[in-house]
């Protein structure tokens, strides 16, 4: 529990300081119409819930939805992958060509194997949780990987990795990043940041003071506040259990989806209708959440891990071991089927609720309302809301009816539960969403794992998340007879002291270079830990005031973390990224490793050395001698903390 309560405190600290501006969609933000016809969906895709936030009974399709066993990929994913793998070929050729591995014609290699998708590299990116810090540091990394970003395809940069990737997974704060990119039509990080700052922060003020006068016109505050309460109550009135996460998710959506109505009709399953996703021009976004029964203490490594992909919700774990079509989540499945008397419920998979579920730890900040400077009246309103929920369950998201009711009775821990309870995806210490990416069915070759966790006492990562994933993959059979690893395979990972002693947490490190060390196919993990290149991005801010300069410096540092300062901190890094991409593929096609790659693996692979002595306090120094822009004038903006915004929203719910 120690780690968890510390995490609560930390997450509160971070939540207390999320700038509303980060989440605001800009020009890519779709307009929300009251009813959206199917034809319109092709261009707008998102607002397709039948009745805003309230899930509705609808007529079932001729083939009634069912829960399927996790014994294969879904047909939807399989057919999407055929397109996606093909669509990654050109970006990969382009990227590998630019990375310019000496003595190796990567373009020719890809061309030669283009007809055989299974020979080609299969890439994933995972961005960890860690609240505001993770969202921005991960944002910088994704920006660096995105060929649409200015300068990202220059020498020393890594633009095109995002376009070459099959999956992009996020969890908690990293889930806000992934969600905000996809919910806003697969936009860029720069577009998310690049608001007209003044109008954004006027929007922030308007939460308290009235409608904005800037580019984003909102309802007045009273409508906003009462709106959230009405939406959550309406969901309750329609027969669905609600939880603190409903309020949190709705408030989060106002920052994330659309300023004018908070995207009440936007569903995660509608991502499959979005043009870029439907054409497989983007990776597949996946968010992660943990199963946790009310009152239960979550045991790392013994948790059922669920995923939300655009097609389905469910788990590969041999406990529940099933997936439900996401669009019909909320339908009353029993034993995996929907009785003839049942309607097909749609609109349950609201994007804010899905993102809020993956980041449900942030519910906790509401508990600290008494520590804020809100008025006494506000505090008692919030306390009143909280009193409706049991204290120990404040981080829980209720999925009721439980789609897995009566399903897999022999192995499931939840088959008798009328409601499935989910919590923040990082609560099992696996703070990097690797679980969906190490599933054997997905055949990934390489995972770029961006870690913004706050493991050390000054909020830097120390490998804890990788250790947790590794431990879980080892437990072929666990004490209770379960077999949670269930075919997943993960590279060997040393203990955290070794991470710190060898500096594995201060620069990118490859794990699993030698695939002959594992018996089943195992992806190479490129671990990219948050560290200071141009900014001390280990922020833990109790300070309620924000400035956009700091936000931008963290994103820029994240760009430098991913690119090692565009190659300035290590000139071989870009080539070595190319080698990491290619390694498993070269092995499959029995192609000799280029000499440059042999050197890369000597430099960047963890070589199996362990030093478990207690390290001194980890206090990394700047990786780039002369951090740019340190003295840039810091523009103070209105002190409008995200926590205050949400707390105000919650308080107004009882209006
Ligand atoms: C989404 O982005 C694509 C590609 O940039 C663009 O063609 C399309 O018009 C956008 N759709 C909307 C609804 O903005
Ligand atoms: C997903 O699969 C279902 C059932 O096979 C099919 O009806 C649906 O059109 C598919 N959706 C997409 C986006 O491919
Ligand atoms: C593969 O992708 C290329 C370029 O994106 C496209 O021209 C071609 O039609 C695709 N082939 C298949 C089989 O999808
Ligand atoms: C792009 O690179 C040029 C040349 O190095 C530089 O002047 C410019 O500021 C860069 N733009 C961005 C957005 O980084
Ligand atoms: C949806 O249908 C179920 C029965 O299939 C019924 O119990 C429930 O009340 C209906 N919900 C709404 C909101 O109409
Ligand atoms: C805030 O303080 C009041 C008065 O001490 C108390 O009744 C209430 O439960 C507290 N609220 C929370 C959320 O701790
Ligand atoms: C690593 O992080 C874990 C989790 O926060 C912590 O318990 C441990 O003391 C840390 N170890 C080092 C060496 O930083
Ligand atoms: C996994 O195995 C390790 C080492 O045997 C053990 O400490 C841990 O409790 C096990 N975890 C589970 C979930 O069984
Ligand atoms: C794992 O969790 C299940 C139920 O949640 C429990 O019955 C079992 O004892 C736990 N196993 C371990 C090794 O903690
Ligand atoms: C995973 O678990 C399922 C359900 O228990 C089982 O059928 C399957 O064989 C397992 N897969 C592996 C690779 O162990
Ligand atoms: C690397 O490039 C990015 C984007 O152009 C830029 O913001 C950053 O300052 C560059 N880093 C260094 C160390 O020059
Ligand atoms: C790059 O970093 C690796 C790993 O720390 C190191 O072995 C190598 O010498 C560095 N190369 C350069 C050119 O700095």
UniProtKB/TrEMBL annotation:
GO cellular component, one term: cytosol
Occurrences of domain PLA2c (ranges): 59-611
Annotated EC: 3.1.1.5
Top-level taxon of origin: Eukaryota
Segments for region (Disordered): 46-67
Keywords of this entry: Glycoprotein, Hydrolase, Lipid degradation, Lipid metabolism, Signal
Compositionally biased spans, kind Polar residues: 54-67
UniProt GO BP: glycerophospholipid catabolic process
UniProt catalytic activity: a 1-acyl-sn-glycero-3-phosphocholine + H2O = sn-glycerol 3-phosphocholine + a fatty acid + H(+)
Hydrolase recorded as keyword: yes
Signal peptide: 1-28
Coiled coil: none
Enzyme class per UniProt: hydrolase
Single GO MF descriptor: phosphatidylcholine lysophospholipase activity
UniProt cross-references to SMART domains, sorted A to Z: PLAc (SM00022)
Entry similarity comment: Belongs to the lysophospholipase family.
Protein name: Lysophospholipase
Organism from which the protein derives: Alectoria fallacina
